Amino acid sequence: MAVLALVLTCGFWGLSFPVLKALQLEQTLRLPDASSWFLAAWIQLARFGTAAVLLTPAVLHLPRPTRREIQQGFELAAWGGLGMGIQTDGLAYTEASTSAFLTQAYCVLLPLWLVLRSRRVPSRRLIGATALVVVGTAVLSGIRPGSLMIGRGELETLLSTLFFTGQILTLEKPRYAENRGRPVTLMMCVGIAVLALPVAWATAPTSGAMLTAGASLPTAGMLALLVVFCTIGAFLLMNTYQRYVPATEAGLIYTSEPVFASAYALFLPAWLGAWAGISYPNEQATLTLLCGGGLILASNVWMQWKGTPHWLPAWLTVGGRRKR
Predict the structure, then answer these.
(1) CB of 38 within 8 A of CB of 151?
(2) How far apart are CA 157 and CA 277, in angstroms?
(3) pLDDT the model gives residue 293
(4) Would the pLDDT of 186 be above 90?
(5) What is the distance between the alpha carbons of residues 237 and 222, in angstroms, rounded to a whole number?
(6) Which are the contacts of 115, defined by CB distance < 8 A and separation ≥ 6?
């Protein structure tokens, strides 16, 4: 149940990529003087602020949030809010494919953290599955060895993965094991909105830009999709069910997010573009998409497989023996 919930979380997150891209294109046309920092901060403020308002009635009838639920919610807000902000700014200085590849670095950072914390080497299954994800993400993103240059965008993207790693590990902390998903998610949404407000206010191009940014029907509709599915739906599932899955396995499951995003990009951009009056063509299904997505899918199936497939080499099994 927990694994399926996290896969559904990735399905919701994947939807955010074409929706956010269409939203940024639409807002850039209406606010040509707005900086990328303002648009990113405004979207986070509107997205998580609205989610907090909608979540409040679902929490009011529950016993009030505990001290640890409030603490965990704000801790998640700090990790996630800063990570998304830095990642968004990095996108302005690097290719989207490069960002997509580097963002998955947390699937490598989590096993490294496991080694440092427990002082033991990860299982060969985890190492092999992580390698499959790295190769699959590279294929899916179209990254080639000669095309990967380390500049501001790449450094900021790598820095954001440290924050995303912290976000995943926060959900695994034993002291938060009894926390409820809804109060924690509400506190997280409030925290991210509070973090985004001063950035949006300070970078606004005009005094009325905070209101102008949301003054269109397409913006309201795309924000609704982001709030309902990509924020409330995704983070309620993540904050409720990730505690039942080891952080290293959860990190691998989350790498299926770009697979969903690539699938949505085959048909959603044209719909969103026609609705918002912008040019946003669909992507095309390619062998690269199928191969990269297949490797990521194979990695996650391997991690969840009970026992060892008969085709797996003996050196990748526990103790060098096949398990039945």
Answers:
(1) no
(2) 30
(3) 75
(4) yes
(5) 21
(6) 121, 122
**Calpha distance 11→5 (Å, rounded):** 10
pLDDT band at 127 (very low <50, low <70, confident <90, very high): confident
CA pair distance 55, 183, nearest whole angstrom: 9
The identity of residue 109, as a single letter, is: L
Tokens at residue 203, please? 């970078």
Amino acid at 309: P
pLDDT 10s digits, 59-71: 999 999 999 999 9
Give me the half-sphere count of Cα atoms (radius 13 Å) on the Cβ side of residue 164: 26
pLDDT in tens, 12-22: 988 887 888 88
H-run or E-run covering 200: helix 181-203
Contact 52, 227 (CB under 8 A): no
CA distance 143 to 98: 7
Q: How far is CA 179 from CA 36, 242, 246, 251, 254, in A?
A: 36, 12, 17, 21, 22
Fill in the amino acid letter for 179. Answer: N
| Domain positions in the chain | 2-268+276-308
Rounded CA gap, 10 and 61, in Å? 29
* Buried-state track 37-70, b at ≥16 Cβ within 10 A, e below 16: bbbbbbbbbbbbbbbbeebeeebeeeeebeebbb
Query: Count of residues for the chain?
Result: 324
DSSP 71: H
Helix (H, G, I), strand (E, B), or coil: what is residue 134? helix
Structure tokens that stand for 44 in this block: 């986070």
Lowest mean pLDDT among 78-82, 248-252, 273-277: 248-252
Asked if residue 288 lies in contact with residue 101, where contact means CB atoms within 8 angstroms, the answer is: no
Supply the Cα-derived Rg of the chain in whole angstroms: 20
Could you give the C-alpha distances from 60 to 181, 183, 204, 261, in angstroms and in order?
A: 14, 9, 34, 34
Q: Which of 10, 175, 35, 148 is nearest to 92 (CA)?
A: 35
